[in-house]
UniProtKB/TrEMBL annotation, chain A:
SUPFAM superfamilies: FAD/NAD(P)-binding domain (SSF51905). Residues 5-307 form the FAD/NAD(P)-binding domain. It comes from the Bacteria. Pfam families: Pyr_redox_2. This is FAD-dependent oxidoreductase.
TrEMBL record, chain B:
Residues 30-61, 64-94 form the 4Fe-4S ferredoxin-type domain. Keywords: Iron, Iron-sulfur, Metal-binding. InterPro entries: 4Fe4S_Fe-S-bd, 4Fe4S_Fe_S_CS. It comes from Psychrilyobacter piezotolerans. This is 4Fe-4S ferredoxin.
Amino acid sequence: MKETQVVVVGGGPAGLAAGIEIAKSGGKVTVLDENKKPGGQLFKQIHKFFGSREHLAGTRGYEIGTKLLEETKELGVDVILDAPVYGIFEGKTVVYSKDGKQHQIKGDKIILATGATENTLAFPGSDLPGVMGAGAAQTMINVNRVLPGKKVLMVGSGNVGLIVSYQLMQAGADVVGLVEAAPNVSGYGVHASKISRGGVPIYTSHTVKRAMGDGEVSKVEICELDERFQMIEGTEKILDVDTICIAVGLSPMSEIAWTIGCDFTFIPSFGGHVPKHNENMESTLPGIYVSGDISGVEEASSAMEEGRLAGIAASEALGLYSEEKARELKGQVWKRLNTLRDGEFGEKRKLSKKTQISRYMEDANE
Amino acid sequence: MNRGVKFTGVPSMEEIKACPGTPSEERFEKGPVVAIECVQKIPCNPCEAACPFGAIEVGSSITNLPKLDEEKCIGCGICIPKCPGLAIFKIHKNYSEKTSLVEFPFEYLPLPEKGDQVPCGDRFGKYIADGKVLGIKNDKKNDGTTLISVEIPKEYFMEIRTICRGGER
């Protein structure tokens, strides 16, 4: 059986950043990813990122992905692709499949950076071809260069819904409208303004009543909602569309963490059940770390920072950093993370993260 | 009814006037200047470093709204493509007796050509008036964000912010 110091499950922004930090400290690390290409969702992010200019703000997501990959290469991080991990067994043995065969790799430490998955929405006709996740549409246009449809209705006004709407328009589709059940836009105003300037009507307090079509979507009926989120009769509107994109949030991909027995806590603003962890991103199972969307759905910039944090902490635990050096490095990452969780959009996430860590501490003190 | 960016996706005139990135009425009279229509505290600060004249300040907390020093701003527009939110516009109110010049970021294809008459729209993409394309900047350092300047009737300098997508009037 292959052995290494750290096994990272997931090669998106969090997993790659974790791998980079471990390699930087002189550690041996293997990153496993089920996809054929590393980078997670970064390579579909064709927009310029927000954040601090020291940390690549203003750079397009796919360019950040390219930089991460160059760094992993330079540092000699072992990345195994097309390798879905389906279990972690006693003694931190990670089992994955590759080329149709089962493989095992044993690590002293494990970092779970499995990401998140899109939520779905059920309505009459939601099983018709043409109804898809916004992330799927984004993969089609930005990775595979295929336009999923010409006339799109977007459901959900979080940053995913807003950004994918914009990118669908850039790819040549018409976004005939965006519906949002809440009375206000939930993503960044600047993203909403981009699609507004492009003439997309934003229907707040609205939802999809049903999708219609013979074998594929050809029309959608939308409807206004009252303050209790009940449909208001007589407010229905029918729009001609061939595609309905669902962008109603993400949930952490936490199956592996559940099966190995990590303790979870329920934090709705992070996407539901998330593993409890401490300030080192270590879960309730010693030597098992979490980072990125699995530890609470946020965005790529904070995922990378959490990956760095987990990487540095794992290196420290392996004795690759002195306590003092590790404290300094982790302090820098926490400072950047706190900045990313500032302001009217970040405050809630900052509080949620505090709650999540304090619930870990409560258990530890019992 | 425009109740503001959180409800409509577009900042209201009140929000724009109250934001520290908006030049004063007197400054618009004096010559080209940028208008930073950034009204929400999001963690972002590339505009600050983009300005070679030190006219934009975000400060130590990166969620502060960018503050424009309108005396230092010469209206060069270098900051426009650096804003990931595409929320900075260059405005030359008194471009001529009857016209203003508005420069905005544009990330769609096809691009118009210099000299074209194009339908120009407001922040909702609603057609306001025709404008004449005077400049297209597509430098490599702008990383895919094209800057387009249009000459428009002066009365709409605070309204026109784009070319209507699809060419609709």
